[in-house]
């Protein structure tokens, strides 16, 4: 093209966006170049999650290629999808609507807090194993070590209290999110009904 410097262009292109191979199978994925990157919508990932062959192929794809996921165009309200599923498949780039401070953005914040918000976290060991299956808890729990989490509530603010709050009391709810169905755990603190609390 007129005005295009090939030397300069070669310096700035690290990834080349290509279409998702069809059929989405290992033979097609093997033909891809290392710099090829595919984009997936959340609808595609949901469809893959329902098909065992596709989701296993997606995990293998993310082992050797860059994959990025972005919200559906149907999200006119700028809401977000749950980023845990694409992370579980090993998706490297998971785009979210940062202008919406919802639960998925909180999960994203929590994920990257582990690395001082550097924007990159090494995949856990179990995600790098060939036998990893995101829908089979046993394929990755074997290597996991139990974690003990202790939460100490220091203070509360901006708490709206009902008229008869001493009957309902005050408590804190903590949600721990996992990657599979039924992997979200909710814990509730003891209820405090002390009238002089606030």
General description of the model:
The protein is 29% helix and 12% strand. It contains eight helices and six strands. The strands form two sheets. It has a four-stranded parallel sheet. Strands 5-6 form a two-stranded antiparallel sheet. The mean pLDDT is 79. The chain is an alpha/beta fold and 198 residues long. Strand 1, helix 2 and strand 2 form a beta-alpha-beta unit. The longest helix is centred in the N-terminal third of the chain and has 13 residues, at 52-64. The chain is globular and about 75 Å long. Helix 3 (42-49) packs across helix 4.
**Molecular shape:** globular
For the largest beta-sheet, the strand count, sense and barrel status come to: 4 strands, parallel
Our count of helices gives: 8
Average per-residue pLDDT, rounded, comes to: 79
Unreliable segments of 5+ consecutive residues? none
Rg from alpha-carbon coordinates: 22 Å
Q: Report the β-strand fraction as a percent range.
A: 5-15%
Key attributes of the depicted protein:
globular; 198 residues; 29% helix; two-stranded antiparallel sheet; single chain
Describe the secondary structure blueprint for this structure.
Layout: H1 6-12, E1 16-18, H2 26-30, E2 36-41, H3 42-49, H4 52-64, E3 66-70, H5 84-88, E4 93-94, H6 103-113, H7 138-141, H8 165-168, E5 173-176, E6 185-188
Parallel strand pairs: 1-2, 2-3, 3-4
Antiparallel strand pairs: 5-6
Summarize the structure in short.
Helices cover 29% and strands 12% of the residues.
